[in-house]
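Hi everyone, sorry if this is the wrong subforum. Our group has a chain we'd like a structural model of before ordering constructs, and none of us has done structure prediction before. Sequence below.
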Amino acid sequence: MSTRLTLLYAHELRATSANVDFLDSSLMYMGIGTTGYATTFFMPTILLEFHWTQEEAQVHTIPVYVVSAAGMLMVAWLSDRFKHRYAFAMGGVLISTVGYAILMAQMGNPNLNRETKYAAVFLVCLGGYIATPMALAWLANNVSGHWKRSFSSSIQITIGNFAGIIGTNIFLPRESPTYPTGYGTAFGMLWVGALAATLMVFLMRRENAKRDAGARDHRLALPREVVANLGDHHPSFRFTL
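Answer:
Right subforum, don't worry. Here is the predicted structure as tokens:
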């Protein structure tokens, strides 16, 4: 009996959403993180195109980072309080989307005033700072067991840091001042991350429902040493949404 249950459990491991959470969250982190890398490396360059001097452009990055840091801390506190990640991550995505929409509108409206474009940079950076930590915390919440959490987090960061390669190569000097490749790629990657997050919340909600219905309770009949080490595969474990 225990052998049959072990084989059934192995089959479930290949099919359940608990196996894809770290890959999905890695894609989420990479997609959303592109915004963070792009704004960090190119914000002074972007602000120079708003007809400030180099010194003024550097100074004008400070308020953007202050607001973004404050927003990140506030949303992190709220997310912990409500024990929910997805809605807050998507809130950040939507904020950045509005900012990118304004900046990309320069291509059709080259006379867009500087104050509007500067406000858009606030939105892009704020949304990225809100959503990126959600990807990191979300995975940690949904992986149980020290070894598995360490492995999953390292994979997430390794894959996610490809965003640095993308973000540092999309703002092309020849496309100044509108940077269609830069804004367009960052915006597209942002929504790749958002779609990955949406897939993950769907899979985890479905898995939670199966566990609520007792569909995973047969795992409790596995050998005692296996049950003791099920981690996030244990029937009592619920994924954070």
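For your construct planning: The CA atoms of residues 185 and 231 lie 38 Å apart. The radius of gyration is 21 Å.
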